Amino acid sequence: MQDIPTPLPAKPERFVDKLRFYIRKKGLAYKTEKTYVSWIIRYIRFHNKQHPSLLSEAHIEMYLDHLGVQLNAAKNTQRTALNALVFLYREFLGIELKDLKFSHAKKPQRLPVVFSHNEAIRVIDELRRPYKLMAQLMFGSGLRISECIRLRVKDLDFNMNVLIVRDGKGGKDRSTILPSVLHAALKKQIALVQLIHNQDIEDGFGEVYMPDRLAYKYPKSASSLEWKFLFPSNNYSVDPRSDKTRRHHIMDRSVQRAVKAAITEAGIHKHANCHTFRHSFATSLLQQGYDIRTIQKLLGHANVETTEIYTHVLGQGASGVISPLER
């Protein structure tokens, strides 16, 4: 249940607990919390576990230099660490930072690996239920694996052919395509969820985890079908905050293992994974002539520059250049 925030003491005393409490009070996504806390702990350990308030800007620069030079980290990795440390000092500790001077990472950004349409279908055909349907959604709707496993019954709108992604990256909701070709399979999956739900109620475990304080605001909704996860786990698990036994969703590592095995079985020799389906969704839309802003909205990218990287992946290049050999 790695997407459920760990419980905190009512009155946090430890530095990390205070930091987590502050992050949650600011309303940041739990994934952001885990990322920031992880980088801040690494920073503290790098400086022999000294309290950050005792460290200066020079110590921040030293750590960022270490990432960029000694560890040869990617630009995005170094940038994430920088964001975490800026949040630590400016937001949490209230210490203003001047212009930091450090060696920027030189490791180039790699182009994303994509499947051709044929390759994506071959991988999907090697998968069994429910992983096959999950891969179809990642490829057909451009979902991240974390977004796919957290889908709930209520997030599907068959009449409008719309799928709602709740609390995506950056804590934002967005809408994307719900392929009509998947309607029958999805309705069959919902019927299965209903059967499991009925059995859970009989066993006395009919509630599902609800984010934030929605369980208090809508106490009956936790036992309703609409809030059930579309891809429920085979087993019950214990919520670490409430100690309640519930049925959560399938874990991402189970999907990743199934997809990795399917890629091998399909005979595809690319460094591919679940996220490759999302990359392939974007490049496929570009090939069909959809504009970059539309694709950005469907993917939920904050900046169009992130989406534009897919223009460099297309077989004929972003400018439609044809090789002299082809002529």
Give a brief description.
With 327 residues, the protein is mainly alpha-helical. The chain has helices at 15-25, 30-46, 57-70, 75-92, 117-125, 131-141, 145-149, 183-203, 214-217, 252-265, 274-287, 292-299, 304-308, and strands spanning 156-157, 162-165, 174-177, 232-238, 245-249.
Characterise this structure.
The protein is mostly helical and 327 residues long. The chain folds into 2 domains: 15-92, DNA polymerase, domain 1, CATH 1.10.150; 117-287, hpI Integrase, Chain A, CATH 1.10.443. The chain has helices spanning 15-25, 30-46, 57-70, 75-92, 117-125, 131-141, 145-149, 183-203, 214-217, 252-265, 274-287, 292-299, 304-308, and strands at 156-157, 162-165, 174-177, 232-238, 245-249. A hairpin with an 8-residue loop joins strand 2 and strand 3 (174-177). It is globular and about 60 Å long. The termini are far apart. The model has no long low-confidence stretch (mean pLDDT 87).
